[in-house]
Structures are given as structure tokens and as C-alpha cells.
Automatic annotation (TrEMBL):
The keyword Coiled coil does not apply. This is Ribosomal RNA small subunit methyltransferase F. It comes from Stieleria varia. One of its GO terms (biological process) is RNA methylation. CDD domains: AdoMet_MTases (cd02440). S-adenosyl-L-methionine binds at C112, A113, A114, P115, G116, G117, K118, E135, D162, D180. Residues 8-292 form the SAM-dependent MTase RsmB/NOP-type domain.
């Protein structure tokens, strides 16, 4: 795709003046940059399945140096050692300081969360805090919930609300709100997810109007002094710096900044840009600010969600004592949070850390529960397997094992998913594979 230079200059506004080479920028817009690896903090660089070089703006980000190996076809991907995303999306995570596990229990809201590239990183950094991942488009909730479950951390809930409605119900509550806004998506042209129309005045203004509305709601959700991180994957000034300028002029925010990102700062303090022709990624914008509005917490009293009796016998059999957990049974699924999560979680959730789901009249343990790890792991039966058996399991095949019943298959202590084992012919136990289709993969490299 060739991008017209004068269109690009008009679309970018003041941002065009900061590009040294508009021609190089327009050419780089058409490149489909390969995804990078964002590792979990407890996975070492040496354990990644490909040789990498660091992404300078985010310590947990690594660019593959061997594109002949597909990271998504390795065991490390199956164990969620890393997530794959565009390097540009790590800028917003750096602004959120998601590379450092918080030593305070932060309440965080990701207001535009699906499919979860940033929510999953926030969740891994949250310590004893809690994440509300909000996605107003209902059809995008399932992939978001699936990705959140892959972290193995149950301290999250998924809501599906318009930001204005969320602000009415949870005003003044959060320590940090991330607005990774829907935008004209100029950085997505290289992957064919946007066309040249994303440079049009009409599309930029349409997005900018929506972003103003989302940002006002985001501020209303923040406690006084809480942190706002605003990001887009577009270059137009109207969708980026101008959004923050409006809030500064209203006295609603003040700029915040991070020294580690100084090399990427735009002309506005605390606002950062990555460019496709300079930073080997699709490009992105992120800005940090402190909320100055005096929102008093308005936790509206809600009607409690109708809670059905939790299938306690089955839960005890799989997980041991769950009596200290906060459980909700919707009739189709059971979600289970640690005991001390915020009270509003029960009212707003459309998805959460699943413990069990029902097929007909039968309750089964959920994939998400099997993936919980570290101090969030649930008491259950594990079977630790070698790399060959793990690959066989990830492909969706049954495996041989010891013992019968529900067991979580692990490799080196890292959970992969469930089998249900029964006695086969010749006395051997066969574990029937319970991996959801989305989790199946063909391992090509051991990694
Ligand atoms: C840029 S994407 C978010 C990407 C996500 N943060 C990630 O890193 O994977 C923007 C999201 O905002 C959602 N969205 C659309 N309209 C919205 C609105 N009015 N308020 C909040 N979110 C909205 C879209 O459905 C989309 O999932």
C-alpha cells in the first residue's frame, strides 16, 4: 500500500513537524512488523524459545532474532511463558509501570480491554491488587477472558459496560485507569487491519469525539490523585496530544512522566510516541497524567446478582476447601475469587476467574482454574510430564498417566490444562484431553 505524503501530513497535524523524514514514515506504515515476545517476570530471557534482543522501552519485551522459529508453535507459548504482541503496545505498559509488581494493592481499570494484550500484563503486575477489565463489545469478552485466564492470576473481573455507565457505578474508585482507546488505527495499516481512510479528517474526528467521551468517563472513575494512562495506535495529533491538552485546560489533569521513557517524549510532557520508521514497530502513542478532579467514591448499592447454589461437592473434590473463596454460580459457570476482592465484583462481572462450567447436568472443572499458579494454584491432582508428552497433550491428544479422575497436566510445574483419566486396556490409565480448542497447538520447536 502506498501512502500519500500530503494526506499523512494533513492527518498528523503538529505531529508531522516532528517526523524528520515523512517519506520514510509513509513507507514504514506499510510494513507488517512481526510480533515480539512479552515474557512473564518469572521467566528468564534465556528460557525464551528464540534468540532475542531487548525492546528498549519495556524490560519484559524481546524481539526475536530468528524469524524462522514461530514462537506460537513452542512449548513456552503453551505454558504462557510469554504473550505475543506488537512492540508499540508496550509503550502504554511502560507508562503504567506494568513491568514492576506493585507492592501496594492497586485497584486498576482497563477501560477498553479486549483482546487483553495490556490487561494480561497489568494483571501480572498487580500484586495483591485487583483488575477490572472492561470491554463494551460483548462479542470481544470471550477472547479477553480466555487471555486473562492464561496469566494464572485470579484477581480480575470482566465487565462489559459503556464507560459512562461504569463511571456512574464506580466513580472515584480506581488508583489507575488505562484508556487504550478505539482510534483511527493508522498504525494498523501495515497489517491490513486499516486502510488509507484512517488518515481521513472524518475518521479522525469521529474517533476523537469518542475518545473525549471515554476520557471524561475514565477521569470520573479515578480517585483524586489517581493515575490516567491514555494510549492509541494512531499518529493524528487530534486523537493524541489534543485529547490531553483539553483535559489540562479544564484543570482536570496534570501531566505525569517517566524518566525511562524520555527518549520517546513528544512535544508534550508525559506524552510519548513510537514511530514505525524509527522504532521497528507499528507505532503508538501513550501519555501519563494525574487526576485532579475531586471525585468522591460513588459506590452505588446494587442489587445482588442471583446466586445459585455452588456445586460444592465437585469443587471440593477438584480443589479442596473453597469455603474461603468468594464464589458465584450463574447456573452455567462458577467464578471463584480470593476472599478479599471488592464487593462490586459480584455485581458487575460478565466473566471472571472460572472454577467450573456446566455441560448439560454435569459440572466440569474449568480450563482457567487448572492454569492458576503460584500462591493462587488450587489444591488438585497434578501430573508432571516430559516435553514430548506435553507436546502431545497440547496437540489435543490423550496421554497415558498414573491414577484416574481429573488431573492438571504440567511441565516443570507449569500448568497446561486438564485430563480426565480412566483405567484403559492392560491396566494403563489414559487421560482424555480436556483442552479447549483455542488452547491447542502444534509444537514445532521444543523451546
Ligand atoms: C485498541 S482496542 C484495545 C486493545 C487492548 N487494550 C489490548 O491491548 O489488547 C480498543 C477496544 O475498545 C473497545 N471499544 C469500542 N468502543 C468503546 C467505547 N465506547 N468505550 C470503551 N471501549 C470501546 C473496542 O471494542 C476495542 O476492544
Amino acid at each position: 500500500m502506498s501512502i500519500d505524503q500530503s494526506d499523512a501530513i494533513a492527518a498528523l497535524g503538529r505531529a508531522a513537524q516532528t517526523i524528520q523524514d515523512v517519506n520514510a514514515f509513509c513507507e514504514a506504515l506499510s510494513v507488517a512488523w512481526p510480533s515480539i515476545l512479552r515474557r512473564r517476570a518469572d521467566v528468564s530471557v534465556a528460557d525464551l524459545p528464540v534468540p532475542t534482543e531487548p525492546i528498549p522501552w519495556y524490560p519484559l519485551g524481546h524481539r526475536s532474532l530468528d524469524l524462522s522459529i514461530r514462537p506460537s508453535a513452542t512449548l513456552g507459548y503453551g505454558t504462557s511463558d510469554f504473550f505475543l504482541q506488537d512492540a508499540g503496545s508496550l509503550l502504554a505498559l511502560a507508562a503504567c509501570r506494568a513491568d514492576v509488581v506493585s507492592d501496594r494493592p492497586l485497584l486498576v481499570c482497563d477501560l477498553c480491554a479486549a483482546p487483553g494484550g495490556k490487561s494480561t500484563a497489568l494483571l501480572e503486575s498487580i500484586g495483591d491488587g485487583f483488575l477490572l477489565a472492561n470491554e463494551p463489545i460483548r462479542s470481544r469478552v470471550a477472547p479477553l477472558a480466555y487471555n486473562l485466564a492464561r496469566t494464572g492470576v485470579p484477581r480480575y473481573a470482566v465487565s462489559s459496560m459503556d464507560p459512562d455507565d461504569l463511571a456512574v457505578r464506580l466513580g472515584g474508585v480506581f488508583d489507575l485507569v488505562l484508556v487504550d482507546a478505539p482510534c483511527s488505527g493508522q498504525a494498523l495499516m501495515g497489517r491490513g487491519k486499516q486502510s488509507q481512510a484512517s488518515m481521513s479528517e472524518h475518521q479522525i474526528e469521529h474517533s476523537a469525539a469518542r475518545q473525549r467521551r471515554i476520557l471524561d468517563a475514565a477521569l470520573a472513575c479515578l480517585r483524586p490523585g489517581g493515575r490516567l494512562v491514555y494510549s492509541t495506535c494512531t499518529f493524528a495529533e487530534a486523537e493524541n496530544e489534543s485529547q490531553l491538552e483539553r483535559l489540562v485546560s479544564l484543570g482536570a489533569i496534570e501531566h505525569d512522566s517517566r524518566d525511562a521513557l524520555a527518549a520517546y517524549e513528544s512535544w508534550m510532557p508525559g506524552a510519548y510516541r513510537l514511530w514505525p520508521h524509527l522504532h521497528d514497530c507499528a507505532g503508538s502513542f501513550a501519555a501519563m497524567a494525574i487526576n485532579l478532579t475531586e471525585n468522591a467514591p460513588v459506590l452505588r448499592k446494587e442489587k445482588r446478582q442471583r446466586v445459585e447454589r455452588v456445586p460444592i461437592d465437585e469443587l471440593t473434590q477438584w480443589y479442596g476447601d473453597t469455603s474461603k473463596m468468594q464464589c458465584i454460580n450463574t447456573g452455567a459457570v462458577v467464578w471463584g475469587w480470593p476472599a478479599e476482592v471488592p464487593a462490586w465484583v459480584a455485581q458487575l462481572s460478565v466473566a471472571g476467574p472460572e472454577l467450573a462450567h456446566r455441560t448439560g447436568q454435569v459440572w466440569k472443572p474449568s480450563h482457567a482454574a487448572g492454569l492458576r499458579r503460584g500462591h493462587d494454584a488450587l489444591t488438585q491432582a497434578f501430573v508432571d510430564v516430559d516435553a514430548e508428552t506435553a507436546s502431545q497433550f497440547l496437540s489435543g491428544s490423550p496421554i497415558t498417566c498414573d491414577g484416574t479422575g481429573w488431573q492438571v497436566v504440567c511441565i516443570q510445574g507449569k500448568p497446561l490444562g486438564w485430563i480426565k483419566a480412566s483405567q484403559g486396556k492392560g491396566g494403563k490409565c489414559i487421560g482424555k484431553n480436556q483442552l479447549p480448542t483455542a488452547a491447542r497447538l502444534t509444537v514445532k520447536s521444543p523451546g
